[in-house]
Amino acid sequence: MRYNELGHTGMKVSHIGMGGAAFSNIYGSHDEQRGIELIRDGLRYGINYLETGPWYGQGSSERTYGKALQGIRRDTYYIAGKIGRYELDAAHMFDFSAEKTEAAVDQTLELLGLEYLDLIQIHDPTFAPDISVILNETLPALQRVVRAGKARFIGIADYDIDLMREIIDESEVKVSTVLSYAKSTMIDNRLQNYTKYFLTHGVGVINAAATGMGLLTSSGPQPWHPASDDVKALCRQASEYCKSQNVELARLATYFSLSQPGIATNICGFYDQQQLMDTLYVMHDGLSEVEERVLQEVQTKYFDKMLMHWDHVELPRYRQALEQAHCTST
User: Fold this and answer.
1) What does DSSP assign to residue 160?
2) How many CB atoms lie within 10 A of CB 79?
3) Distance (Å, rounded) from C-alpha 323 to C-alpha 255?
4) Cys-Cys crosslink for 61: which of 23, 66, 231, 240, Cβ 3.0 to 4.6 Å?
5) Which of 91, 171, 92 is nearest to 138 (CA)?
6) For the chain, how big is the Rg over CA atoms in Å?
7) How far apart are CA 228 and CA 233, in angstroms?
8) Where are the alpha helices (DSSP H) in the chain?
9) CATH architecture classification, 3-329
10) What Pfam families does this protein map onto (predicted)?
11) Is residue 330 over pLDDT 70?
């Protein structure tokens, strides 16, 4: 396993991290015992950065981690939690208030059975009513959480990298990390335009969703995926080409993301041990000659002109759903 400095936090995190979304029903049926075994296997293979949050199964991810970490020395891993995004119902999906933020941290710690988090992140501040809520309410609440010893550092996790940069520029509260997802991929590598800025400001960079949340896999994305039909079709064509060459597109996508500079850890979701081992092998051994050839061909044939893939899609959908929920309640 490779280990990298996470900004100025002093944490040396594994180049591969373990994500919490896999321990919910977001990417398929969640089996708690299988999840517990995967977490423990990951720790044995050198993964020391774990991530979870209430959004992932409305607590099932946190509960799974809590059971898996029983009896594990606390100084052998780092764990990050999230606040801000909670329930499936649009009316209660997001809450960035100070009161909810502090209560959510307590709830996460209770489910995990831990006294503190190494990192607490604001989950999708894009969906806050206004950036002033994040700056004047959420971040000060998290600062109180840190001062109370319930977390060590504060981070931001969002799809909008420009927004994360804006928050860091304007915040009076120290932000130690950013998590960008699906923007260090074969189809969208915009994160590389920002890593130097973050690193020069002492902000550690975390990447997630190397496969674009399932776009770059042989099985394809889940029905809820926000990408357009055109993007999904293009990724499906690339996947079919890979199959014709007896190559798994997800391996190529994982290798691409793991090879990008400036990123401290890459959050991966594992459904089973085979996915875990395959990711570890890709990091350690790289690609075969055939896979390297196919990677170049796929990038040239399918992704040479790929630009933004689902920018400005989720926020309008959420606002529409929120309006409908308000109309129904009245």
Assistant:
1) -
2) 22
3) 41
4) 23
5) 171
6) 19
7) 9
8) 32-44, 60-68, 98-112, 131-133, 139-147, 161-170, 195-200, 229-244, 249-258, 273-285, 289-301, 314-329
9) Alpha-Beta Barrel (3.20)
10) Aldo_ket_red (PF00248)
11) no
At 93, phi and psi to the nearest 5? -70, -40
Contact predicate 119/20, CB 8 Å: no
Active site positions, annotated: 56
pTM, whole model, 2 decimals? Answer: 0.95
Q: Where are the domains of the chain?
A: 3-329
> The tokens of 140 are what?
């000060």
What proportions of the chain, in percent to the nearest 5, are helix, strand and coil?
A: 45, 15, 40
Q: Torsion angle of alpha carbons 19, 69, 30, 6, nearest 10°?
A: 0
Residue 326 scores a pLDDT above 80: no
Structure confidence by residue, pLDDT tens digits, 175-184: 999 999 999 9
Question: 195 Cβ partners below 8 Å, 6+ apart?
Answer: 205, 261, 262, 263
- Residue among 166, 174, 170, 113 nearest 142 (CA): 174
Residue 324 pLDDT: 83
Q: Per residue in 234-286, pLDDT tens?
A: 999 999 999 999 999 999 999 999 999 999 999 999 989 999 999 999 999 99
| pLDDT of amino acid 312 | 87
